[in-house]
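Dig into my protein:

:::
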Amino acid sequence: MTVSSADKKIPNRWFVVAGSLLMQLSLGAIYTWSLFNQPLVDTFGWSPGDTVFTFSLTLAFFSVAVIVAGRIQDRVGPRKVAIAGGILTGTGVAMASFATSIYTLYLTYGVLAGLGIGAAYVTPLATCSKWFPDKRGMVTGLILAALGVGGMLFKPIILYFIENAGVSQAFLYLGIMYGSLLLIGSMALIAPPEGYTPEGWEPAPAQGKGTALSIRNYTTLQAMATPQFYMLVIWMFFGVSAGLMVISVAAGMGRDMVGLTLREAGNAVVTISLFNAFGRLAWGWISDHYGRKFSLTGIFTLFSLSMFYMALVPMGYVGFLMATCIVGVSFGGLAAMMPTLTAEWFGLGNIGNNYGAVFIFYGLAALVAPGFAIAIGFEKALLVAGCACVGGVFLVLFAKPPTGVGTD
């Protein structure tokens, strides 16, 4: 039996979207880490590699929390998990203001805030997906886009706090701000009644290219026994590594490779955030109309071109910002494509566990890529990433769904 919005008084589902957008905008500030690297080096004398590892830890624990929180929210509800995520995020970032040791920074901003961000991130996506079976693609794209826009909105705020109060006090103010916004947004996260359907809506067969779902639901072990699972893992690791290699140290790249000021180089945070949001929307639409293979080819081709350009071509301010735009749109496209392909290749029945197994390699890439870029130098790291992304393009040529799945 289904419950429609006309059957009884239920909350306006767009109220849930509003709260979700507020949460995702706040969480998008995670991608502004490059603004903190140099101020931390200047203030405490830590090495660039040590400071950027904080960002790696944040994303690694973010990926762990996404997997765990996604399962917990089905039992206790999205609001409780989102509240816990908001408290952990705000507390972790605020407590980073007391860090005088790099290991304290790792524990606060890396571990605590990372766990909180992951818990808060997964709840709006899952909740809105249940409220909008008729507009799932549009709403999911809108929420993912808000995550990208968040970095753009918070960049001037972060720079203002750093320049006027110092990097430590900036963490305190930002922690209070992030935590408050996340808690406000979490109040809107209410799961729909069981069997809910929007008034006047009936499920219809999927249309468009590249939308066929698996006719069987693979368990995680069954998925891992297929070559397609390892294709997803490689694409995830190569693409995320290339993206985070730039995102994590974008401001440093702008200063060291182009000679920009911190504020000028910080504009790369804006371009990456904006085009990250655009990429999540655009590549979702492109893949629905032209196929998943076409889209993956485009994403990894753009990744490789941007890596080679930044490594080999002398850049000015405009060229640097253009390159970061391409990185942002490719990173956003990858974020939209991976869960979609996981669902289509291995079914919806175990999508949480199956995508969680793939998403682990997001965290692994976060641990490896930023430190790798610092250790061997930006130019060499970009060349390695460019070659890896060329390998991703060639892998697409051999990609086909598992047995029993429609093709695009």
In short: The mean pLDDT is 86. The chain has two domains: 11-196, 220-397. The chain is about 75% helix and 0% strand. The beta strands are 3-4, 196-197.
